[in-house]
Amino acid sequence: MKYAYFPGCSLHSTALEYGESTKEICRKIGIELQEIKDWNCCGATPAHQTNRYLATALPLRNIAKAEKMGMDMVIPCAACFSRSKFAQYAVEKDDEFRKKIIDAVGLPYEGKIKIKHLLQVIAEDLGLEAIKKKVIKPLTGLNVACYYGCLLVRPPEVTHFEDAEEPQIMENLVKAMGAEAVDWAFKTECCGASFAISNAEAMMRLTGRVIGDAILNDCDCIMVACPLCHANLDMRQQQINDAYGTNFNIPIFYFTELLGIACGIPLEELKIGCHLTDPFTILKAKQLC
Amino acid sequence: MANIGVFVCWCGSNIAQTVDVVAVAKAASEFKDVVYSVDYKYMCSSPGQNMMIDAIKQHNLDGVVIASCSPRMHESTFRSAAVLAGFNPYMVEMANLREHCSWVHDNREEATKKAIELVRMIVAKVARNAPLNKIYVPVTKRALVIGGGIAGIQAALDIANGGVEVIMVEKEPSIGGHMSQLDETFPTLDCSQCILTPRMVEVATHKNITLYAYSEVDSVEGFVGNFKVKIKRKAKCVIEELCTGCGLCTQKCPVGKKGEVMNEFEVGMAPRPAIYIPFPQAVPNIPVIDRENCTYFKTGKCGVCAKVCVAKAIDFNQKDEIVEEEVGAIIVATGYDLYPKDSYGEYGYGKFKDVISGLEFERMVSASGPTKGKVLRPSNGKPPKNVVFIKCVGSRDEKHGISYCSKICCMYTAKHAMLLHHKCPGAKAYIFYMDIRATGKGYEEFVKRAMEEEGAVYIRGRVSRIYKRKDHLVVVGADTLTGKPVEVEADLVVLATAIIAKDGADKLAQILKISYDTHNFYNEAHPKLRPVETNTAGIFLAGCCQAPKDIPDSVSQGSAAASKALALFSKKELEREPLISRVNEEFCVGCLACQPVCPYNAIEEKEIRDRKGNLIKKVAHINEGLCMGCGACAVTCRSGCIILEGFTNNQIFEQINTFENLISKFEPTPEETVAKK
Amino acid sequence: MRFTKEGDNFKENLREKVEKISNVNLSSCYQCGKCSAGCPMAESMDITPNQIMRLLNLGDFDTVFNCKAIWDCISCEICTTRCPRELDPAAVMDALRILSKAKGYKGSRNSVEKFNKIFLYCVQMFGRLYEPGLVGGFNMYNVTPFKDVFDLAPAMFFKGKLKPWNFPHIEDIEEVKVMIEKCNKYAEEERTQKK
Question: Tag placement on chain B: N or C end, fewer CB within 10 Å?
Fold first, then answer.
């Protein structure tokens, strides 16, 4: 299984763990990732808030490159995934717009390839049965709150991601890993990622209520599929505690990290030590390290 | 030689503004066969019609052409007037100078030219008309009412009281419909069962009504006045004539004590046994066996009900039976279903026990319901503190494919708030709404009472989401009037789900050959002027199967449909237009190529025998009662021996020939072509 | 609010521009409020999403372009997902941000817009994000030089997440710059196009 790989700007830096664990787990389970040469930033939130042509052209350039490689595209970052799906959607709907965008991008584009998030590639394309076979250390007794965030699932006509209100793909993956999936209410609520730097107070309120509901429903950790969500949930807990008087201290894992642990990849290779909120206590308690 | 009279109408200014009607009348007076030609302001008026009648008598006319509006408008008017003059109505034809001329053209000169030619063509046709006579078919003076809800019950009683026999077919084991599931009805808070059950008993005991409960319509053949209906009577496995309705079998049945089967009448909130009466006031009060869930039918063991039945009324060998009935009119009153409450992901996809539908709440507050009239949270059986009512769940929601308003939810939600206040002191009602539609008599005052006296809090805004927090629900909405987001900690949430067409409505429509819309509601013949008729003669509608409505409107429609049926039955025979196909039996070779093309199954094979009974030949025969005059057979017939009366080949060809002769008149001359450039 | 005979509210075909950029039929909004109900930022907004749709329909663009709400929107798309009329309030918010900034409304000078500017400048320079530059640059521009500097930055640095020496570089950066130029040109054309 080969895919054109678009890591996104953060996977080599702020979301180092995600980049490394993705590489490790894909190698383990047999997914070949071929990084798109000279990919550019997808534009994230600033592009679509400023210029709709830019917001479509930036991701479309990467998609055109992947199309040239003749492979479907896999994206680990939910924001980059969202922007790329939006780009595909926008040029399908409006012919005049499409012409201008392709002119700007400067590469041929036919819309032949599919764009998938890493979760879809692992849980659907590869399949949960194949995953179960690779699990050598089931995460028994670990209560995981699966956090999808907003951009993976919405809007449904753009992302085509399972169900916009009650997705189960992460929960099914958790069960395949041998862990318990917690039923909680805020799994598709926004963490405020795009405001992490520009409007930190708003971001902290949103992230705070997500973590709050997860803890209210008795989970041991929260599992995410987006580097921005991880950054907010993992790195800001102390700031939130200071601002709101809470005492959050819950580890946040990427699904690739948990999958890596379940498939026996050593923790140092997954770079779990890079988390700001201590992940080791819970792992030790469940005898997973 | 024919004596044809031409009457050109001004139609006020509708025709005269664009067409020079005086010139048309003058030109017509010079047509072949025309002996009288005149123009008049309003031919359809009383003086106009009298003018036609007088002219017929004075000038000994044998053909009349009214050059005015569309025949769909006034053909029947002029033909009826002709009858008064003792004149065959089928010798009257219309030339459409309005919809086909003045309403679609601007240029007066060209429109007048066209009008003259239109009149000339119809004159040519009328010269070839033959006098025709109406066809009379006998009427079976019996009515079929499909559906035993309040609309069907009203229709059945009205027809029966009008002296006509009625057959009522009801799918469920008991009649009563959704109204029997209600507690109190708006705007009077009358007890629903108290006003309904006397009517139900009347239906069951009326000497003119035959009730087939637990039955369905299987097929319908025939036409208005002469329907042949096959009714499938599902096997109850109980002999009706012997059963006393004591109910002992339902108490002893082992199924259902553990909730294996849920009672449909209680909207799934209480269990029922396999042999059951849906509710205590059921009519007929005869239990039925649900064969799919009955232990005896599944495993061959049990049969407790038969053992305890004193009247020996249980018969496991009973089979479904087909009964054939002949009726003259059919009234469809099959009612509605509700949009499933688990359709909204943002409201939990039905996973929250404390999110219920309006009908479930209705059963809860009913004294004979699953909680004996107490409002209790399904999750823990305790009374709620905060109850949130959400209106427009499904209705007015294009995303869910329902663009319409369900009409009754605003009223019953106000009612629910009141009932909550009466039955659950200490509970508070919060109602999220977009609008309040309280259009009936006393309705606005009723809602006002809910707000002012019964303490309901109305919040204008739709609810975005419901989620669970610990032991209660959080309802996330907004108040658009103040612009503030609103959150309610709710113990119970009631969703006012949309009214949708009954499951299987489309199949029934296909059996009856009536039309239905994209939402599977049945189409009325005209939305304003003919609300209870369909486009299929002899079949009428009543109640929610046509569109969402409340009980007063359903009852009104039931009576209206009954009056239509009684009007049909007031004559001994039905008049039919003679504009149907006819086979010339001399030339017909009996190939029956015409039979499969007839959409109305009106063509049969007929044997022609001599006096000794020997077969001479077989020919096609067209049933006068079924033929709708579409002409498909006439076109198909290889020998040309089928004609369509009123539109014979001779008539049509004469029209075409008249026009063809004049084609040269309309080609532009070389000078005109150059001038245009 | 006043509707004059001259129809001042509907000058400058702003409504058409908003509808074109967002691809939304504004008249279809029947003010049900579901967007405002689900919006996580509604409680801090000065005008809620449904009120914004209302003001647009009534032609009061000044209030809308100057409001804080459009810059509070986080584009989480809950409104678009749940709108019963299948409208797209998130896209309308984008259109309003684009037009407000392009027209230089005072309301558009805020920290979110500054962040956007720095971010896109990074993309133009390097083709990819240079995160230390992004955060540092923003702090300077926004005159909050010590934000996150003492608590987060060192932690991230020691975990290896912050690498100020690692400037991203792509080979076809010139083509990316050309692409950005063209996009700016098309956007400007669309914005200034007369009806």
Answer: C
